[in-house]
Every structure is written in C-alpha cells, then in structure tokens.
C-alpha cells in the first residue's frame, strides 16, 4: 500500500523546513522529493500545511481515568480495560503515536493495540510501579481496605528490602515490562505522603537498577524530592519523572550522568485550574499542595534546562483527561525551550531515549508515524494544543485520523 503526500512543509525540529513531497510504502517513508510524486495509492494534497513526526509521550497512564479510588471500588474490573479504548483514540487524535505507560496498562493492552483490536498509540510498558509500604501509590487505606486493582498476571507493586525489590523487579519483567518504574518520593496527590520525602533506600534502589540492567531495561523514578532524585541518580536511574525540587547541584549531576528529566508540567497546571470531583474528600488538601508545586517546579525545571539537562515530553495523562498531550509543549516553551526544542523533546529526542533510531524524524527509511498540522508550530507552539489543528495522523503507514 502506498500513500503520497504532496505540497507539504516537512518540519524536522532542528532542520530547515523543507517544502516537498513524501511517499509512504507499507509502513516506511520510502521517498522525500522536491517534485510531485505519482502513485496508484492514496493521494493527499498537503495544501501547504505542515508535516511533523508523530509525537511520543513518555509519561502516560493509558487505562487510568483520574486514579479515583471510589471508581475502582464501584466499577466491574472490565471497565478498567474498556476505558482504554477511548483513551487510546483521544491520544492518537492529539497527534501522539507512541506512549510510554508509567503504570496501569498490562501486556494485554499492548498486544490488543498491536493486533489492531482498537486504534491506539504504540506502547512501552512499566506494568506497575514499584512502591514502598506506605509510600506514593501504596493504595492501602488507613481503614485496611486495599484500593489497588488486582487480577491474575498483574503483580502488586508493593515491596520492601533488597530481597523483595529484587523479586518484584523480576515479577514486573515477567509480566511484560519494557522498563521499570519506581516511586522514589512521595506524591502530590497521595494524602499520606509528602513530595519532599524520599522513598526506598539506596540499597533497594541499587538492587532494582542492577536487576533491570541485567535485562537491558531502563529505570525511571517518580520523584519530586531533592534527596530522592540524588538517590536515584547515584543508583543509576535513566530518567526522573516530575523532578520538582531539583537544584543546581543535582541538575549538573543529571547532565553529567546523562539522566533525563521528564517534568510533566501540564498535569499540575491542569489539576489546579480544573480542580477535583466534589466527592473527593481530599480535594482541598491536594489543591493547596499544587499551588506551591507549580511555582517551584517551573523555576527549577527552567534552571535545569539552562544547566543542560536533557528534558523530554511527558504529560501524566490518566491523572488528567487524555487527549491534551501536546499542551505540554507550551509549558516547555514557558520554561525557556524554543518551539523547535520543545517539539524535539517529544519526537526525535524521545525516540533516542527509547532507543528507536527509526522513529521521531521524517527521514527516508524511518517508520511512517506522521501528523499534518494546520499552521506552523514554530511560529505558534500553541497550535499543537488544539486537536482540531491536527488534520491527519498516520501511524505505521496507515491513516488513523483524517
């Protein structure tokens, strides 16, 4: 099968915009030409719109719908999975063709997408985060009721001590994890933890990393805490998610040790602006935490960018509604990145982080994951935040939005 897009502006961040034409054959970019290309396949007139690589969101929770414990209690288990169908479509329609799921999706969701059972982004899975007893994402309530979703084939994330974290890392790998996610600090939205506090000790973290690296898996840290970030860096983690309280010293260490930062700036802004359900008894407490977090995180991530930390795009979608993914780019520009750098953080740089040398750029021989945009996002990055401006999405050489 062939798809030809003629008369389009090809935007690879960091390169000059090329006005040209592109031939897709099967799932591969076969040709990029300054001349019109003829084909018996599907012909698309680009109408001088802009063609970008499909975006990669490095921090999502594709099955999640706000992580409301009350819904977990009330809904049959199947709803947990059926929620993923519209979430996946919303993500594609936003221009995101690949995601890294940081907890909630199991192997069945990835296989279903691969087998074409429903349209959705390609997935890298963590299965479930590793969490210490009483830490962020330990969903055991003071009442003694455990709100963690449980079923065969989906391991619980709770573990303590070197022996347990070693076994849990192996269990998560056995369940189909492509990378390991670890809760290395308290969270903003977990009522019995503080984002200032580190979680897991250095021996536990080193054990997790050693086992993950034995299996060639990257390790990512949910972490707001300064001490938690430092512990994760020294243990050999590959990325810090959120990184709220990062300081100059730690930013330099991240740069020098090639540890990436995925700040997920959007999630805190969205929650602060839109609030929490009326039945959330802890809504006021969460909003009070967020007010300070937003200010501090923006200042600190801006500093980290200036110090040369590799900053990548992630949104924490699932904590907030899906489909707002590219709003993150505007927040990255607000901390000092150029529009081209922000776009690169969710395309070519994100692909490099995943070890995908055939994704993230519009080049001959690469996988045909592409989006066509109404307008030039280098002139106005907020164009990408409006899904109506995402005119066409091509994934693996197939049109999935038009």
- The Cα radius of gyration reads 21 Å
Which class do the helix and strand fractions yield? alpha/beta
Give helix and strand order, one letter per element, not per position: EEEEEEHHHEHEHEHEHEHEHHHHHEEE
- What is the first-to-last residue Cα distance? 17 Å
- Assembly state here? single chain
Query: Major beta sheet, specifics?
Result: 8 strands, mixed
Query: What is the β-strand count?
Result: 15
Beta content comes to 15-25%
Low-confidence sequence ranges: none
Helix proportion of residues, in percent?
A: 25-40%
Count of helical segments?
Answer: 13
Q: Which word captures the global form?
A: globular
What's the pLDDT, averaged over the residues? 94
Task: Please characterize this protein's 3D structure.
- The protein is of the alpha/beta class and 402 residues long.
- The chain is built from 13 helices and 15 strands.
- Strand 7, helix 4 and strand 8 form a beta-alpha-beta unit.
Search tags:
402 residues; alpha/beta; eight-stranded mixed sheet; four-stranded parallel sheet; 15 strands
């Amino acid at each position: 099968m062939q798809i030809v897009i003629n008369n389009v502006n090809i935007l690879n961040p960091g390169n000059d915009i090329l006005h040209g034409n592109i031939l897709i054959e099967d799932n591969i970019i076969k040709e990029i030409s300054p001349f019109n290309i003829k084909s018996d396949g599907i012909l698309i007139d680009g109408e001088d719109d802009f063609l970008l690589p499909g975006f990669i969101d490095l921090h999502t929770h594709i099955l999640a719908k706000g992580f409301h414990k009350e819904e977990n209690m009330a809904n049959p288990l199947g709803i947990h999975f059926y929620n993923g169908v519209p979430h996946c479509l919303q993500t594609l329609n936003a221009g995101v063709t690949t995601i890294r799921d940081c907890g909630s999706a199991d192997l069945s969701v990835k296989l279903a997408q691969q087998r074409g059972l429903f349209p959705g982004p390609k997935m890298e899975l963590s299965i479930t985060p590793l969490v210490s007893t009483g830490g962020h994402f330990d969903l055991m309530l003071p009442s003694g009721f455990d709100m963690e979703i449980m079923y065969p084939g989906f391991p619980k994330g709770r573990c303590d001590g070197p022996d347990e974290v070693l076994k849990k890392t192996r269990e998560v790998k056995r369940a189909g994890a492509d990378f390991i996610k670890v809760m290395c600090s308290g969270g903003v939205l977990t009522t019995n933890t503080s984002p200032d506090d580190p979680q897991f000790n250095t021996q536990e973290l080193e054990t997790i990393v050693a086992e993950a690296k034995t299996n060639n898996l990257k390790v990512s840290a949910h972490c707001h805490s300064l001490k938690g970030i430092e512990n994760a860096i020294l243990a050999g983690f590959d990325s810090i998610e959120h990184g709220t309280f990062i300081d100059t010293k730690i930013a330099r260490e991240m740069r020098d040790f090639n540890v990436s930062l995925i700040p997920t700036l959007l999630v805190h802004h969205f929650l602060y602006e839109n609030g929490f359900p009326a039945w959330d008894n802890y809504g006021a407490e969460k909003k009070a935490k967020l007010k300070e977090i937003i200010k501090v995180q923006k200042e600190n991530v801006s500093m980290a960018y200036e110090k040369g930390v590799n900053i990548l795009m992630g949104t924490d979608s699932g904590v907030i509604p899906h489909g707002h993914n590219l709003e993150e780019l505007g927040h990255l520009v607000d901390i000092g990145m150029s529009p081209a750098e922000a776009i690169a953080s969710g395309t070519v740089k994100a692909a490099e982080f995943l070890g995908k040398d055939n994704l993230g750029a519009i080049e001959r021989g690469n996988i045909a994951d592409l989006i066509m945009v109404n307008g030039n996002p280098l002139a106005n990055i907020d164009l990408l935040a409006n899904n109506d401006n995402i005119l066409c999405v091509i994934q693996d050489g197939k049109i999935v939005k038009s």
